[in-house]
Amino acid sequence: MRNFTEKYHSANDTICLIDHSIHQMWFPVVYVFVFVVGFPANCLSLYYGYLQIKVKNELGIYLCNLTVADLLYIFSLPFWLQYVLQHDNWTYNELMCKICGVLLYENIYISIEFLCCISIDRYLAVVHPFRFHKLRTMKAAVIISAAIWTKEFLTSLLFFKHGEFTKDPESHVVCFEHYPIKSWEHTINYYRFFAGFLLPIFLLLFSYCCILRVVRKSHGTQLKKKLQIKQLVLSTVIIFLVCFGPYHVLVVVRSLFEKTCAFAAKIFNVYHFSLSLTSFNCIADPALYCFASESTYKDFIKLKNCCLRFSRCSKIETQESVEMNTPEILRSSGALAEKETDELNKHQLPHSVILHEQFYT
User: Fold this and answer.
1) Confidence band of 11 (pLDDT split at 50, 70, 90)
2) Is 88 helix (H, G, I), strand (E, B) or coil?
3) Distance between CA atoms of residues 114 and 145, nearest Å
4) Three-state SS for 13?
5) Is residue 27 part of a domain?
6) 236 within some domain
7) Of 19, 118, 156, 271, whose CA is between 20 and 30 Å from 137?
8) Orientation of helix 281-289 relative to helix 223-257, angle to 10°
9) Would 47 be classed as within a structural domain?
10) Domain named G-protein coupled receptors family 1 profile: which ranges (predicted)?
């Protein structure tokens, strides 16, 4: 079977018929996996961000915004799943196509920008803990977050004002894709690569290289703590490159060389595989920035205890009055034990973990 055909509607209008089998084989697996794993993980991440905000930590602002961006994309996955299962035939109106397309593409860049905010915030916390303290406030984090959302919203209005519906030679309504790419997409793709990927990865690498240099020179930090920080930094950079690197490279390749349906057909599978990798960022973000912190374990233990207390209260309402004092005793003893543990940890906290806490909080 041929991979493509061409139909010319005018001298400058070419529509390609390309084998989209990768969408039916690979993308449903990705979408279902990201939805099933990413939704609960990001809900927990949102809770962790809330806990950080509750203690006036500006990191929580960035984490909550990052999580909201991931969740918005996750909510669009059922629409994309239906689209690919129907052999790339969009059955909703064009407005819904634009909304889902914006959530798909803008989630990439909103996520990248908040990942940069987190890395710069950690850089200022570790390398310049007192010099730029005004940039590490709740107010500054809110202003920066609002600026990011506003910028991306205006960018989407500017870049996605074109019609997003096209029909392939099989009369399928294709959403948010053009083969070969249109002339107006070239500028957008170059902007995505340089401003949306190259500059952020430079900031990310700069921030974490400085952090690693400070950690390496710190004689008071335990070797285990140094290793944990190094692993987290290295994992962040690797996941950033794996999730976003291949897609942005291929975006530039398409802009430079995609002139005919023949080239579009050759690069179609690898390009869309790279696009699917960006979806895994919705799972990587909670894993790296929430569950990697040692303090998070304690926070989620508290969440578990709250859930257990709630379940106990619900169970007690249906039991005899003779059993109603038991949960109170359990809660009191649990609270006392937790208080004693906190006091013990506070007095036994060694000076060697100060740098470690500056990185995570």
Assistant:
1) very low
2) coil
3) 8
4) strand
5) yes
6) yes
7) 156
8) 160
9) yes
10) 41-289
Q: Which residue has the tokens 């349906």?
A: 261
Residue 183 Rama label (left phi>0; alpha psi -120 to 50; beta):
alpha
- Rounded Cα gap, residues 200 and 65, in angstroms: 17
> What is the tally of structural domains in the chain?
1
Point out which residues pair with 25 in neighbouring strands: none
Element (H, E) at 174: strand 173-175
The set of residues, in sequence order, having a beta carbon less than 8 Å from that of 290 and lying 6+ positions away, is 44, 45, 48, 49, 63, 296
pLDDT value of residue 358: 57
What's the gap between Cα 275 and its chain centre? Answer: 14
Q: Is residue 32 a contact partner of residue 50, using CB atoms and an 8 Å limit?
A: no
**Three-state SS at 189:** helix
Q: How far apart are CA 145 and CA 199, in angstroms?
A: 18
Cis peptide before 28, with omega less than 30 degrees from 0? no
Strand partners, 356: none
Tokens of 214: 């400070």
In sequence order, which residues have a C-beta less than 8 Å from that of residue 242 and are 6 or more positions away? 277, 280
For helices 223-257 and 199-217, give the axis angle rounded to 10 degrees.
Answer: 160
122: nearest Cα among 31, 27, 12, 206 = 206
C-alpha gyration radius of the chain: 25
If we measure between CA atoms, which residue out of 96, 80, 262 comes closest to residue 165? 96
DSSP-assigned beta bridge partners for residue 17: 5
Q: Which two three-digit tokens encode residue 267?
A: 């690069």
Its pTM stands at 0.77
Helices marked H in the chain — which ranges? Answer: 21-25, 27-54, 59-85, 94-127, 138-159, 184-193, 199-217, 223-257, 261-277, 281-289, 294-316, 326-348, 354-360
For residues 114 and 62, the answer to whether their CB atoms sit within 8 Å is yes
239 within some domain:
yes
Q: Residue 216: which domain range?
A: 15-299
Q: What is residue 168's DSSP assignment?
A: -
pLDDT tens-digit series, residues 71-105: 999 999 999 999 999 888 888 888 888 889 889 88
